[in-house]
């Protein structure tokens, strides 16, 4: 049981670090993500993350960013460039997981995104993220959601 809990904690930390890396990437103009990656890997608590999951997620989000944004557009009420970089990053990470990490239940993906937004985003940003991801999950995982 403790191992499972630690695994969840390491995954949460990985997601947080990916969001932080994407924040830096988004704010600096979406060039190479390698500078953000190097910075994140040098943070004191990086060893607490699931490094393999972090690497897979960061590279995967950046590689699929156009597809992920395309999937998000019908679910948001404004252009993606108008979202805060935190919300934008969280939505990209969650969209990636919903699309590619089918072993992670959609409710877990949404909950993790909401919790990370509560930690790093604006006051009510988590409510917005929750609503967007509910719509997105219905489209990407209709069978699992039961739509």
Automatic annotation (TrEMBL):
A single Gene Ontology CC term:
cytosol
Q: Name one GO biological process term.
A: DNA-templated transcription termination
Keywords attached to this entry: RNA-binding, Transcription, Transcription antitermination, Transcription regulation
Q: Is Transcription regulation among the key words of this record? A: yes
Q: Does the keyword Transcription regulation apply?
A: yes
Every NusB/RsmB/TIM44 domain range: 13-137
Lineage: superkingdom: Bacteria
User: MF terms per GO, please?
Assistant: RNA binding
Q: Which InterPro entries match?
A: NusB-like_sf, NusB_fam, NusB_RsmB_TIM44
**What exactly does this protein do?**
Involved in transcription antitermination. Required for transcription of ribosomal RNA (rRNA) genes. Binds specifically to the boxA antiterminator sequence of the ribosomal RNA (rrn) operons.
Q: Which family does it belong to?
A: Belongs to the NusB family.
Name this polypeptide is given: Transcription antitermination protein NusB
The species is: Hydromonas duriensis
- The UniProt gene name for this protein comes to nusB
């Amino acid at each position: 049981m403790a191992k499972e809990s630690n695994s969840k904690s390491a995954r949460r930390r990985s997601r947080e670090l990916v969001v932080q890396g994407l924040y830096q990437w988004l704010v600096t103009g979406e060039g190479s993500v390698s500078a953000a990656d190097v910075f994140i890997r040098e943070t004191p608590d990086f060893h607490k993350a699931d490094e393999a999951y972090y690497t897979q997620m960061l590279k995967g989000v950046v590689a699929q960013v156009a597809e992920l944004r395309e999937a998000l557009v019908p679910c948001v009420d404004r252009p993606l460039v108008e979202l805060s970089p935190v919300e934008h990053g969280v939505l990209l990470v969650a969209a990636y997981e919903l699309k590619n990490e089918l072993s992670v239940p959609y409710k877990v993906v949404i909950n993790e995104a909401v919790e990370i937004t509560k930690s790093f985003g604006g006051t009510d940003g988590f409510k917005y993220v929750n609503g967007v991801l509910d719509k997105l999950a219905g489209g990407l995982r209709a069978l699992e959601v039961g739509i």
